[in-house]
Design goal:
Blueprint lengths: L6 E8 L10 H15 L9 E5 L6 H8 L6 E5 L3 H18 L5 E9 L14 H7 L7 H16 L3 H15 L13 H6 L2 E3 L2 E2 L8 E10 H4 L7 E10 L4 H7 L8 H12 L8 E4 L4 H10 L8 H6 L16 H5 L5 H12 L12 E7 L3 E9 L1
Parallel strand pairs: 2-3, 2-4, 9-10
Antiparallel strand pairs: 1-7, 4-7, 5-6, 8-11, 10-11
Length: 383
Amino acid sequence: MMKGNKVAITGIGETAFLRKGEETVMQMMTRASLAAIADAGLTPADIDGHVSNKYVGHPSEEVAHAIGAATRRFTAVADTAGGTATTGDALRLAQLAIEAGLARHVLVPYAIRSTKPGGVYGFHAREPQKAGLEMPAGFFGQPTYFATMANRYAHEFGMSEEELASVSMTYRAWAALTPSAQKRDPMDLNAYRQTPMISTPLRVADCCLTTDGGGAYVVSAVEAARDLPHPVISVQGVGIGYNNYPHGVLFTQKPCTFDYPGWDSAAQAYAMAGVDPKDLDLAQVYDGFSISAIVQTEMLGLCDRGEGARFYAAGHARPGGRMPVNTSGGHMSGGYVPGINLLIEAVRQLRGQEGDRQVPDARLCAVAGLGGNNHSTTILARD
């Protein structure tokens, strides 16, 4: 097993989260990368390691050239999707490179243009199983898939409309305290009910935002981090769970569609970090949809299985609650730059930089990253 407290996240950077931006993915990654490097107190010439993302379409040499990085001594590609790639897979690859002496400072950039023609998940329409069997029946699109998860979950554990709505309302309460969040207008139950129904029981408010934006972070050895400007935010644990369902059948053919590999990833991460869920001060949970956030909240051990919706309805995750979750508004109210903006928010909270939304004395945070057929759990700690 890998050991914790070997590497730290030393620099973070983001672009603005826009409903529709003008920049390309490459331009957003470049700006976020330069911001992260400067935040770390480094220069591009210090960056000698790169972890790229297979879904972005730009290899590491393009990013290295754009930012003026040092000669690349290490490169890798995160071969997972969504939040698993940005918050787990890439981080684990960076730690392996640093511990092996292959790089000193590893850059992890990511950007997304959700407003590109066809949307970010339009490629699913090219999958033969969907095109031939599912799409003719109208069973296509992420909201439809996750709506079936919500219905199955409600059948097994019970879930009222008010309990489901409490997830969206919780994250909107945090977004109201976050100047960079896309959606900051207050949302009570009545406002939730005014948002259009997309696929029963999921309304617009239950779905992640459409965002054009980018983010990046720098990973360095803990010893090197002690000489850099910010408090040391070390990686205490990283766990990744996988299953072998291809994305073409993932959301429709599994025996239980909402049973992600998060139980496995969480167990790995807690074991590596030597902590338990009760030790956490806050969490950031990949909230592509309200139901996926509910299930992952349970997988992190923040509540018992089947109690996720009631956990949110009781107010535990809201500002002032006993276990704050998605303190920037998450993907549903803050911005949808899959996973990476949640990891960046975790670092900011642990640095103590968040002003009105700062969780008091935050020292330990879990980040859950859903990637469909993969799931990551990462435990970050302030020294």
